[in-house]
């Protein structure tokens, strides 16, 4: 927790100091009110007391209550500002940390867990700060100060108060022991319900296509029921606190008055004829006044213990959240940025793999074995192979989504590990297997992350990507809205907009990871021709399944089980690479392959 509190700004620390000052004032005023009550009780019991004196003490008591309320409001304001400021800083810190995560770290936590940690867990911390800043500071001060106030009173009353405090401590100790293990379970189950909900929303079309609504409902019911049962268990345990506290507070008042009645009865002072003496009457009045005051102080002490104990019940659950948030913040990044931001002169757009081997974290055997090849500036290099042959794994090493375990990858003559990671990725236009669209407009998606986009440049990129036909038919052209995930456009349209995004960036290197799969053969051919004509100086790496997409490439790399089975042009591979031949003949006839038809 102390590590998270270091995120407080100087302004927030000043607010904490101000809050502590107002808490001290609030406690002083609250403990001052029983003194006035004592005086009012004494005046009422004493013959000849003036009403003005009673009203004066009553007025002072009322002023104490009003100023105490004012101090409480100010303290609550500062506590809320500190809590919201800290949670805002934590969310920003967690978000920025997650943005530095690579696939390894994302897989370590899972997306649903990261969402829960950024929202629910930080909300738990915010709640503790908002409530705890008052309770954890006020309760000890209030308790110690009140004990000093009653230390010179009747010892019997102190024993009763001590017994009540011990009962409270035992009750809360049992509560913590029973409920604490469930708090970790609750956070884990919250991750689970988030995961199931997210899966259902992302895969809603598949769910409907397979009429699997009931299946998904049952999955949700399972995790929801378990979360509900766990919440009910902890809720039932916590439910004992309220009634028990009511019994203790009512019991302590009853015990103090009951004991007080015996003490008062034992202080009768009478003469030989049995007539009460004035000294005895005064003493009984003082004891009665002390009893009223002691009862008020005792309840305040018990309330302080209750607040402190409640915080210690809440604290274990929040500490689970603190640990989960710290796990994200303290995670070591497996891929760190270098210092180089430029390649070697004359090597722009060159990509070289030197004896590269790679395996996924905790993934067992290597998925790439001793890969070596060079893609020169302006070349189109295609990568083809059977499913799970390592095509995507290979190209993911270039922008450093993963790092090679053996060998090295060079871009512009420099090892990618030496590059500043932002400088490296600035050189690359990446189009992934899944076309990702962000909520916004066509223009904002094409000019993604560009500060001052050019309308002409956006339209040119859309035209090259063969997206102009459908964009022009949209209601507002390039300013037409795109929903989150691009659900209001087709798969082929999303792919073309993703390609337009990369084209608009004008990078040195294009990486197409099976990015033409949703396009028809005609659009595929026209798009590749436009890319060749308009981006001729850029190096292009194309991962594809279709022979027709890659047959005109300057160099084709054939992968089999993570190793290179052949390198060369289409005609050469058709002569000397059996793996390539099998792929080609499975898609096209011999005549189509010979005359170049797709």
From TrEMBL:
Full protein name: ATP-binding cassette, subfamily B
The species this protein was found in: Eubacterium ruminantium
Alphabetical UniProt keywords: ATP-binding, Cell membrane, Membrane, Nucleotide-binding, Transmembrane, Transmembrane helix, Transport
Molecular function terms from GO: ABC-type oligopeptide transporter activity; ATP binding; ATP hydrolysis activity
Main location: membrane
Residue ranges annotated for the ABC transmembrane type-1 domain, each copy included: 19-317
Superkingdom of origin: Bacteria
Record bears the keyword Isomerase: no
Membrane topology: Multi-pass membrane protein
Native organism taxonomy: Bacteria, Bacillati, Bacillota, Clostridia, Eubacteriales
Coiled coil location: none
TM region(s), chain numbering: 12-29, 60-83, 127-147, 159-180, 237-259, 297-315
Location of this chain's protein in the cell: Cell membrane
